[in-house]
Amino acid sequence: MGPFKVSPMGFGTWAWGNKLLWGYSEDMDPELQEVFNMLVSSGINLYDTADSYGTGKLEGRSEQLLGQFLDDYPGSAAVRDNVRIATKLAAYPWRLTPKQWVSACKASLKRTGQDKLALAQLHWSTAKYAPLQERLMWDGLVAIYEEGLVDAVGVSNYGPKQLQKISQYLEKRGVPLAAVQVQYSLLSRGPDQLAVKAACDDLGVALIAYSPLALGMLTGKYSLQDPSSLPGGPRGLVFRQVLPGLAPLLDLMAQIAERRGKTPSQVAINWAICQGAVPIPGAKDMAQAKENLGALGWRLSDGEVRALNDAADRVPQAMVQNVFQTQ
Questions:
Q1: What is the CATH code of the structural domain delimited by 11-313?
Q2: Which pLDDT tens digit goes with each residue over 243-272?
Q3: How far is CA 28 from the centre of its chain?
Q4: For the whole model, what pTM was predicted?
Q5: Active site residues
Q6: Strand ranges (DSSP E) for the chain?
């Protein structure tokens, strides 16, 4: 993975600034700083963000908070300097020329307070709806790397076919592809995701798994029998579609968790690590962050992984994949 060396698990900051999906409010910031401090001190060094994270006027809030929290981290400078910030640059229709992509990356550097980012990723491919923009984006990624703004480059929401195309293009330009980020969990392991995983293994790049808890459905904390437990908004709609068929998988996860002295969430995250992925669960409070950390320091057995895969294969309604993911 070249310069992209990271901890077995990272941390995703999608919720930071997102009022619509995650109910963010500014009064959460002090606890989020505590969450960040605890994770950094615990050895988590990959923090994934995006320049589009944050709803409405809060767009860019996630990057700003990450920069602010890093500045205010009270621990040692050596530990702080080991933090790797990975951002994703949105495929906005006005981002066409290499210069525009370089400007976008510089804006992310400014918001995060960094001289250089560990990783810049294309947030999604435009191959499905604006194929002419796609190649221009690749040139933008090359320009960002050649300008020395980042240690490495990657892509997000790229399917196996488009992944092969961009990896070949970057290789010709002398730019190593370091990471591929896709939705990947026990509920996101259909043929396309498995093909992405195989391509990552073949190319020798990191697979960063976002939504390893399937928006929270794999935590076992939500039940259709208790409608008040379900989240509101778009997440609630997905939960109502998927949860009815999840009982056998969640029961198995609960059994493994009890036997291991762990929680279903920790089993789900550990499963992703056992696949060779780098999961990036989020956390809105200390309790969630500490629970996520409990996924480290142990491994599911091969038999447990097989049983989980078999149970996941029998789920009648798996997670809907990100609409931006290409073939």
A1: 3.20.20.100
A2: 899 999 999 999 999 999 999 999 999 999
A3: 21
A4: 0.94
A5: 53
A6: 11-12, 46-48, 84-89, 117-122, 150-156, 177-183, 206-210, 278-279
Which residues on neighbouring strands pair with residue 86, listed in sequence order? 48, 119
Q: Assess whether pLDDT exceeds 60 at residue 2.
A: no
Kindly write down the DSSP assignment for every residue of 120-170, as one continuous string.
EEESS--TTT-HHHHHHHHHHHHHHHHTTSEEEEEEES--HHHHHHHHHHH
Q: What token pair was written down for 139?
A: 């040139």
Of the candidates 101, 212, 202, the one whose C-alpha atom is nearest the C-alpha of residue 149 is: 101
Can you tell me the distance from the alpha carbon of 241 to that of 221, in angstroms, rounded to the nearest whole number? 16
Q: Convert the pLDDT of each residue in 166-195 to its tens digit.
A: 999 999 999 999 999 999 999 998 888 999
**Coil vs helix vs strand at 29:** helix
User: What is the Cα–Cα distance from 183 to 324, expressed in whole angstroms?
Assistant: 11
Q: How far is CA 314 from CA 11, 188, 225, 320, in A?
A: 29, 13, 21, 15
Find out whether 83 and 119 touch, Cβ atoms under 8 Å.
no
Q: Are strands 117-122 and 84-89 parallel, antiparallel or unpaired?
A: parallel
